[in-house]
Amino acid sequence: MSMYLHDKNKRDLTNVSDVLDGLIARIAGTTGGLLLHLKTAWPELAGPSWSGRSQPVRIDTDTLIVEVENGSVASLLRFESTTLINDLEATLGALPFTKVRLRVGRRN
C-alpha cells in the first residue's frame, strides 16, 4: 500500500498522513470523534467495572452501544448504566447520548 495519494490537480504526490490529519480534525467535533475518544480512553473513562469486559462500539442517536463479553456481564453492567452516563458527563461534559444499550459480542 502506498504512503502517498496522487493529487490530479497538482500532479504531485501527497503524504497520506497530511490527508489523515485533516480528516481527523474534521471529525473531532462529531459523534465519530467522541466515539474514537471513548474507545481509546475507555479503561480510564469507564472505570474498573466496565473496562476489560466491555468496549463502546457505536453512538446511535441518543444511545451509546457497548459490546460486552457475555450475557452475565450484560446483566451485571445493566444496573450500572446510569452511573456510567453520570461519570462520563462529569469527565467529558455534555454528551449526545442519554442511554446505554449493551450488546453481547459476536464470537468468531
UniProtKB/TrEMBL annotation:
InterPro entries in the record: DciA-like (IPR007922)
Pfam families with a match to the protein in the record: DciA
Protein name: Zn-ribbon-containing, possibly RNA-binding protein and truncated derivatives
